[in-house]
Amino acid sequence: MELPDLDEVLNSTLLSLDSPTPLFPIKRSSDSYSMGQVDLFPEESISEIKFQFDLKTGMPTSFSEVSVSNLHQNSINSTSFQRKAFRRGTKFHRGSTQNQPFHITTGSTYNLSEQKNEEEKEKEKEKEKEKEKQSIEDQTKYIKSLLTGVGLLNEIPNFDSSKYKQEQEQEQEQEQEKKIISKEETKEGQEKKQEIESQSKEEEQSGYLDILKSFDLNEFENGEEKKEKEQEQEQEQEQEETNNEEHQKEKEQTNSKGNEEKNKIATTNLKKKPPQKAKKWVKIDNSSVKDFYHLIPNLALKFPFELDNFQKRAVLHLEKGHNVFVAAHTSAGKTVVGEYAIALALKNCTRCIYTSPLKALSNQKYVEFRKKFGNKNVGIITGDVSIQSDANILIVTTEILRSMIYKGADLIKEIEFIIFDEIHYLNDQDRGVVWEECLVLVPSHIKLIMLSATVENYLEVSEWIARVKDKTVYVVRTLKRPVPLEHHLYFNDEMFKVVDRDRHFLDKEYSKATQLKREKEQDSKNKYGGRGRGRGGGRGFNKRNFSKGKGYWNRLIKKLSSLNLLPVIIFSFSKKKCEQIPKYLGQDFTTKYQKNKIKTFFNKSLERIPLVDRDLPQINKTRMLLMRGIAVHHSGMLPIVKEITEMCFSKGYVKILFATETFAIGVNVPARSVVFNGYRKFDGFQMRDLTPGEYTQSSGRSGRRGLDSVGTVIIACDDDRLPWANELNHLILGKETSLSSKFKLTYLMTLNLIRIEELKVEDMIKRSFSEFYGQIQIPTKRKRLIELKFNYQNLKEIRCIYGQPDIEDFYYLNNQISDISEKIESVFLNSQFLLKLLSPGRVLSISYKGIHGIFGVVLKKNGKNQYLVLIIKPNQNGDLEEEVVSEKKNSSNKNNSNKKKNNKKKNNSKNIPDIEIEIITIAISQVSMISDLKINLPKQLKNVKKQNFKKLNTSNSKDLNLVVNQIYKYSINPKKKSAQIKKLNIDDLDFEDYYYDRDHYVKEFEKLKCHNCPKKDEHYYLYKERDQIISEVEELTFDISDESLKLKPNLEKMLLVLKELNYINEDNIIQLKGRVACEIISARGLMATELIFKNVFPKMSIEEILSALSCLIFEEKVRDMNELPNNLVVVKNKLLEIANEIDDIQAKYEVDNNEKGSVTDSLKFGMMEVVYEWAKGTQFIDLMEITDVLEGSIVRCIMRINELCKNVKNAARVIGNLELYHKMEEGMKLIKRDIVFAGSLYYD
């Protein structure tokens, strides 16, 4: 049987195994099953000219063009920007949805050059020809200015450059041909040939190399130098001649070896190429920095302190233009690396972007950078603020950076560095996807500085970024804390150090705490008559929040003050606890001087808000606490109050600060000690324990560098409870946080990628961190595919002696029987009657050595799921029943004497037909049928073993013959399967079907001619090998295709939703609604777009529109919500109607909503009346009587509504709706007032 062509067998496969591996950039394919269109390993290189100079005279002697890595390319010398820059203005830094992103020709995640129309390509070719036709005189002037400017030549003599060019080209071509002929057959010659070919290709690309060819540089050399060169050339020629002679001798020897070696070489043609060294995507730098100041004598930024070693290593890589990943503990000094990158950008006259996850951190960096680099050089862009947007140093939120890239902001062209601070925020459930988008889409000419806390899988994250950007990432890491930490338990008014500064768990100290707990419990029993106070009597943490009273907190603060551990940050993972605990404290921690300072600063800060808002309850409460040196900080506070608190704490006026964990991430202000009021938090989905990484992040705020020798961390325990030792060990000394991808598909991302057409959505998924582990295996899988095709072509043909081979059916049926047997086995294993069914004496049918329908009897259990069985073996053809039938035919033709003998055989049960018996061990999967027949086994069979079976077989045992005869009779005429199955009493609906199916396959299997074929085993294994190759090829083909992406099914469903809603057409081309949705980046884009196109807004007043937009923004749950006015009820019902329509379409295509629920569930109506009243002019203090939502949450919601109004206004401009455009402008004016939009203290 001839082997079919592998390409025909895999007609669904689009990968050609002979084709070379596709490289960057991506080629768009119209086929949805396109495989391997993306390669994360593009070759990025540029060329530069290197001169060789004479050491004596300083004159150039020769030159060569060398390929170098594109590491030093920045926004000054980059030639990858093909779109002309826009004029300075709003579009300069924010971009427009009508723009295309700047695309990079090398190392980028996408490229337009292969997707352009033919007309554009022809225009580019014409431009290149015009460049090549530039006058040689201009080029010689350029070379002259180049060389004279360097100081190598004072004058360049006049000459006819065209003649020199022709002569030099002819001479060089002749020399190259001679060298190629002489060295072509040697290894060295082949390597040099490759160098010459690469140089020639590079020379064609460079414009000014033609002029350098025309120079006869030998004219500027002295005679002695010429002689030395001639001698060197003669020596090289002699060496080449000797090498050629040796190579010819080797060639003659190899020719005499015969054709065997040629065949071997042919089979190993895949290994002809020399192995290339795998590129190191990540390099950990632990090198010495003793020569730091020698390598960088003039630092771009000088620091008033000596840099740590990890900081010096990072600075060295920044000077070299590398991408750097810095992993260090909190307060270790990671910001120094970012500051040096900013200084380097200012030195290079380029721009730098700093992005952080929280606005509070961005505001703090804005103040710090202004002080260090000057007010004119620093700007900030957030959703509601834009200050000096054309500054060289820009602080932006990650969402703004993503919008800049999608909208092709011209600012991106001038960026050299982007600093991603707190990059471990990739782990954030909601916003981690934004960080991944930015890291993937950032043009590769931009250098990345990634600052992270200590994470477990920092190497994997670095390798992912390196592969996506096609640039090596240099990892600089330190585990050393500038201020070591000591961890204590506070229990029963005493402190117990459980972990020292060297991170050793102190069992003795923990034992003292447990001993104190026992004594306290004993005293409680004596006092209360044997009834203990503690519930459960355990030592574990109270899983609820700590319930500590007024006396507890006063004693704790007094203890901290006596130990000189103030200022202290008390982390409580509940806003209510942060507000409640300060009420218990009665101490005063400020002096009169500090009180005056606080009062003056507080009153001056409030001058930016109206007089009415200065008497808000939260402001009065904060004022009273600050005067005593106490403060509160959480997200529910007014922005201006939070800023006052942060600044007072940084100046040392606040001694006790109650805060949530956002303070640890967003504000870089350490304290002397840190106290944890609990270790459980609500993460938006459930209550859970703190991870070791979260504990490390918050505890890292203890210990001030240069002020404290050690930082103190305290876990405040209840009076009757202690944490378990293993809980403490895991919390304090556990593994670092492991970053995981939170990448998810959104409609905004999908529409933006469809709009720009530079990067397919599938390609974005491939570059995400979630697909990283699968994508890095694609090159090896492609190699494996090539090997499989080579193995497939070398398979032997299956030539059947019968002419009509059944080997395919033989192999297929055998696999079917095996699969069904496994299903039956699983039913048996879960059956309660398994032991009864397979008890000793049960007659059954099994499969053994590839033969089905062998009958036997169970002797006993022989291990787990294994049984010892006596079987009657079939004949050589694997057919037992034929032997029985032939025996019947022979008996009918015999005489009477023979009949008498047969009767004796039946009566004595001794001389049955010649049948071999054997005792074997079987697994449950080998059982093909269990009969209802059960035989009484003799004693000798009950205790038999496989070792003494021969003795049993040779003995002429009547009992053995009786057992064999009963099995024999049953095998001739077995009962129907239905009768057997009913007696088994197995309650499984599919069990009977399994039995019938296997019986059917066994009957078909026994009809095949392959049973009588002497080459059955050989052909079976040949076909098995062929089938395994095909199945592996299909599996690998699927793995490297887009269909294997985890998010691909959901993407196809989302595209169907967008098509039905008319956001894109059938060809996946974006429509008007899709372009409008791209403008909505502040809320659910589909919902806002549907409101616009269904003409909902024209029917509403401006106040009602703003109230409706609040439902798309607000995310908190409101317990007690007042009844809405009638007009707002109408608005609410309209929103629910549109949301239900979208949900119905999504449910129709089964779209996964990324655990956020439906659009209807996402609408929150708790702020409708508040926003409505605010737009009508109601004072902020009166809003607090309408709702119980915290002041800070109200301000944040209204500010986001203002940002959403900007998006809707841009959308109205796109569709030309002037009425909606003016309504949005007027709405922004109505809400943008008073305390909600008070200027930040950081911006002064």
TrEMBL record:
Coiled coil: none annotated. Residues 555-754 form the Helicase C-terminal domain. Gene3D superfamilies: 1.10.3380.30, 2.40.30.300, P-loop containing nucleotide triphosphate hydrolases. Residues 92-138, 161-279, 516-543, 882-908 are annotated as: Disordered. PROSITE patterns: HELICASE_ATP_BIND_1, HELICASE_CTER. The keyword ATP-binding applies. Residues 233-243 have a biased composition (Acidic residues). The keyword Transit peptide does not apply. InterPro entries: Beta-barrel_MTR4 (IPR025696), DEAD/DEAH_box_helicase_dom (IPR011545), Helicase_ATP-bd (IPR014001), Helicase_C-like (IPR001650), MTR4-like_stalk (IPR048392), P-loop_NTPase (IPR027417), RNA-DNA_Helicase (IPR050699), SKI2-like (IPR016438). One of its GO terms (molecular function) is helicase activity. CDD domains: SF2_C_Ski2 (cd18795). Residues 115-138, 175-204, 223-232, 244-264, 516-526 have a biased composition (Basic and acidic residues). Residues 95-114 have a biased composition (Polar residues). Signal peptide: none annotated. Keywords: ATP-binding, Helicase, Hydrolase, Nucleotide-binding. Residues 315-473 form the Helicase ATP-binding domain. Residues 270-279, 528-543, 897-908 have a biased composition (Basic residues). This is Helicase ski2w. It comes from Anaeramoeba flamelloides.
